[in-house]
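ok, trying the design again with the full structure, not the truncated one.
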C-alpha cells in the first residue's frame, strides 16, 4: 500500500512539473543578432586536374565493382 501511495505521489509530481514547465511562452522566431551576416557562405570551388580526375574515376570504378552500382 505504501508503494502505491509513493508511486501516485511521484506520478503526480512528474505531471505537475511537466505542466509547469510546458506553460511558458514559446517564440517561434529566434532573436535576431545585430550585425549578423544574412548572406550564405559560399565555399571556394576547386577543380580537379586530369590526373586527379583519372585517379578519382579509378577509385570509383573499384568501389562500384566491389559494392555495386551507385544510383
Amino acid at each position: 500500500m505504501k508503494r502505491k501511495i509513493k508511486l501516485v505521489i511521484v506520478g503526480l509530481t512528474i505531471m505537475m512539473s511537466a505542466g509547469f514547465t510546458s506553460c511558458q511562452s514559446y517564440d517561434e522566431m529566434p532573436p535576431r543578432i545585430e550585425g549578423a551576416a544574412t548572406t550564405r557562405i559560399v565555399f571556394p570551388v576547386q577543380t580537379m586536374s586530369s590526373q586527379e580526375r583519372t585517379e578519382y574515376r579509378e577509385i570509383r570504378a573499384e568501389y562500384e565493382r566491389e559494392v555495386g552500382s551507385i544510383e
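Keeping the full-length input from now on. The chain has a mean pLDDT of 80.
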